[in-house]
Amino acid sequence: MKTIRDRLCAGLAPLLLAWGATAHGAEIILERTAVDRLVQQALFTDKGRYFLQRGACYAYLEDPVVSLAGGRLVLNANLTSFLGVIVGTQCVGVPLKSRVTVSGRPAQQGGVVRLVDLSIDNITDPSTRAFVQSVVLQRFPQAVEIDVATALRSMLKQPNIPYTSDLERLDITAVSAESDRLGVTFDFKLVAK
Description:
It is a single chain. The protein is α+β, with helices and mostly antiparallel strands. It folds into two domains: 4-29 and 147-192, no CATH class; 33-105 and 118-143, no CATH class. The protein has four helices and nine strands. The strands form two sheets. The protein has a six-stranded antiparallel sheet. The longest helix is centred in the N-terminal third of the chain and has 16 residues, at 4-19. The radius of gyration is 22 Å and the shape is elongated. Mean pLDDT is 80; it is low at 1-23.
């Protein structure tokens, strides 16, 4: 028969593993592949395309490649567009194709990690720069949004944990984007009942 101490240790084991061995706080590490899936699920939801404009005049990004380096999340994608003015039901304009590189620095905002300090790092067709700047940079912060508190609460609602818990405090202390890894270091206070 298991004692209360045995049950408590068994129940806390997953939490202690998630917390890590350091006394400096817990850390969540997302490899580039996980961040790539976040970007795909947040933006590239229409057959692998991210539509910036729909209709007779259209523009979309496709074939995204995500990397994490120099403290930034970098997105490379192909821009395909037919931009101009609508006359009747047709677009009178020009087709444009361009390789676009945009980036943002992951930063803590409350208990959430979002992209800030956005920039267009490269664009092969300068005539599309204004369009990309007005549309892509407004939506790009949504590509990576990690709600650490919600993720932690979700981990603690596993059916094999024999107690309820309340996350009383969460402080993100560092966010990094290096070597194709996104790291979020945080301290938290958890009360188990």
